[in-house]
Specification:
mainly alpha, 15 helices, globular
Length: about 450
């Protein structure tokens, strides 16, 4: 009788994945699963037991934090992984790649702290119709900067092929979130969106980054790296990352724009209903995050022949991914009804639409990541910007005229079509490059 390990081993051999890579991939999948489960459980507990108003405010704060994170990162982490691999043979230059990104993160955090103080009231008025939550917005903006150090840590470890340490730190992050959120839950005094944001994001991240500090110090410490080399590397990073940043920011704004539209043209109840559905849809980010962490370094250095070999492996995987996605959506639909109850019954159709869109987007994303193989991240930027410009105006009109559900339908259609167009353009460029190499 075959064990699960036998099935997993056979599957990795079928797709041509090495034993070490599959082991690291499995470990990161598990760590991400545990961490995402804590996020999932936290959102369910807040939505179910603290009411739609608190959950709506918490959701807005998380959206601000994630948007701030992506905008402020400017694509530097993806660029760092790529340039570190490119300059690996030159120890001074490769370390300069890591150092300049760290300096960049420090400057970003200082800038975000100033923004939080100066604009907290204004942003609070726009998103919550009140300046009462300026502190919440300020914490959210600051959380984006702190999260930047966490994503930097993961990217650095990814660049130096220390995937197991990424998994261990992710597990620590999950454990700290459970402990802190439990403490907040047991204390009736701290049932506020500000305390919830601190316990789920800001404080655990600060602790994990502190724990990772010795590793980071050892990785970037190289006596004799001239400051001029660091500055030169910073400009090199910025030249490439402007495309990665534009692509990442535009895609995240596309994702988060639903919450911003619901907050601007609806109320906290509608924000809560939307994000209750999106909490379950976020389960699909588990596989996507792990794949991005494992595949990006390989894809960035991939030849044209390797690109087509990778595509063939992905095409073998997609039918299984489709079946698995439908199974997961079915199970999550049942789980959602049980955990959230009738109060969030309107969130179920939102989940079904956005989860189908997320599954299709991830499927196309396995192939659209090849923009880094053909060295044209600008493709992602232009398509994401076009998708954003198409979605937001009509999405806002649908929100006002037809309601939340129709806005989410338009979102799902927009992102799936956008990713499909990326894949078609990448295929065309790849075949052109293949022809020119013959």
């Amino acid at each position: 009788m075959r064990t699960l390990a036998d099935v997993y081993s056979k599957a990795t051999r079928y797709f041509g994945v090495s034993e070490k890579l599959s082991s690291d991939f499995g470990l990161i999948i598990f760590a991400n699963a545990v961490n995402n489960l804590t996020t999932f459980a936290a959102n369910i507990a807040i939505a179910r037991y603290l009411g739609q108003e608190v959950f709506g405010l918490f959701s807005i704060a998380v959206t601000v934090a994630m948007t701030t994170l992506t905008v402020s990162e400017f694509g530097m982490n993806v660029t760092m992984v790529r340039l570190y691999g490119l300059h690996r043979a030159d120890k001074g230059r490769s370390r300069a790649v890591l150092i300049c990104n760290l300096y960049f993160k420090i400057m970003v955090l200082a800038f975000l702290a100033a923004v939080a103080v100066a604009l907290g009231d204004i942003i609070s008025m726009y998103l919550t119709k009140s300046s009462e939550y300026a502190w919440l917005v300020g914490f959210a903006i600051l959380s984006g900067g702190i999260l930047g150090f966490w994503t930097y840590t993961k990217a650095l470890l990814q660049a130096v092929d220390r995937f197991k340490q990424i998994a261990h730190l992710t597990m620590l992050y999950a454990i700290l979130r459970v402990v802190l959120l439990s403490a907040v839950g047991l204390s009736q005094t701290f049932h506020t969106p500000e305390a919830l944001l601190l316990s789920v994001y800001l404080l655990p991240i600060a602790a994990v980054c502190t724990r990772a500090y010795p590793t980071l110090k050892a990785a970037i410490a190289l006596p004799g790296v001239p400051f001029s080399t660091v500055i030169d590397t910073l400009w090199e990073s910025l030249r490439y990352s402007k495309w990665v940043a534009g692509s990442g920011v535009s895609f995240l704004l596309l994702q988060q724009s639903m919450t911003f539209i619901a907050a601007a043209f609806g109320d906290l109840r509608q924000v809560a209903l939307l994000n209750a559905g999106l909490v379950f849809t976020a389960v699909f980010a588990l596989l996507n995050d792990a794949v991005q962490q494992m595949i990006l370094p390989k894809v960035s250095a991939m030849s044209i022949d390797g690109l087509f070999s990778y595509k063939r492996k992905i095409m073998k995987f997609l039918p299984a991914f489709a079946v698995l996605s439908l199974l997961v959506i079915t199970l999550l639909s049942v789980l959602m009804s049980v955990l959230l109850g009738d109060v969030y019954s309107e969130s179920l159709p939102i989940f079904l639409v956005t989860s189908l869109g997320a599954a299709a987007t991830i499927a196309f994303g396995f192939l659209s990541i090849l923009v880094h193989s053909i060295r044209l991240p600008s493709i992602s930027l232009y398509i994401n910007l076009f998708t954003l410009l198409v979605f937001v105006p009509l999405g806002s009109i649908l929100m006002v005229k037809e309601g939340l559900f129709y806005m989410t339908i338009w979102y799902a259609i927009s992102v799936v079509v956008g990713e499909a167009i990326k894949v078609l353009i990448i295929n065309r460029y790849a075949r052109t490059l293949q022809g020119s190499n013959k």
